[in-house]
Amino acid sequence: MKHKIERFETTIPVSELLEQYFDFTLTHSKCSQCPGYQKTWSCPDFDFDPADFWSQFSQFHLIVDRVSCASAPTAEDAQNWLFAEKTRFDAEMRQLEQQSPGSYGLAAQECVACKKCARLSGHPCVHPEIMRYGLESIGILAVKLIEDKFGFSAQWSDGVSVPDYYLLIGGVILKNK
To answer: Which residues, other chains included, contact 15 with Cβ-Cβ below 8 Å and sequence gap of 6+?
Structure first.
């Protein structure tokens, strides 16, 4: 492995998360500008209200992996590292979910379980046991959350430059008791 991963974690009451970081109107607006919008079941539009989704949970265990890209020779290499780590990260969030009955693991960004999502042909999700939502898709201002909780921000590439790091942002939401 040519890249370093740093992990950051904290637990936040869902009430605080909703009060300070929930803005589905804004996140939906940004999602609708993405080329992947409505192309996977993990992306809006949904047949549920994201605020109602969050209301069934009490605590959010936020997990962020900061994947160093400093030694990546190209932007494409950095993206490939990120994708490989995303696969590991998402699987880990599902494993953590299994440790707390009724909890829900959140993926880093959109689902990539299938090469072509069944949503594109109007069919239900083929792998509901794998598909998980990302924070932004269900209304959380993830960049603001990371800045406030950990003191650093997200970085992006223009397709040519290599950022110092990419972030994988997810975690586990714990059920109300």
So the answer is: none
pLDDT tens string 74-130: 989 888 888 889 999 999 999 999 998 889 999 988 888 888 999 999 999 999 999
Distance CA 64, CA 167 (A): 7
Q: How far apart are CA 45 and CA 27, in angstroms?
A: 11
CB atoms within 10 A of CB 34: 15
Q: What is the DSSP code string of 34-81?
A: STTTTSSTTSS--SS-HHHHHHTEEEEEEEEEEEE-TT-SSHHHHHHH
Q: Pull the structure tokens for residue 124.
A: 């239900």
> Residue 171 belongs to what H/E stretch?
strand 165-175
Cross-strand pairs, 8: 64
Q: What would the mean pLDDT of 63-83 be, rounded to a whole number?
A: 90
Length of the chain: 177
Q: Is the dihedral of CA 55, 103, 131, 92 positive or negative?
A: positive
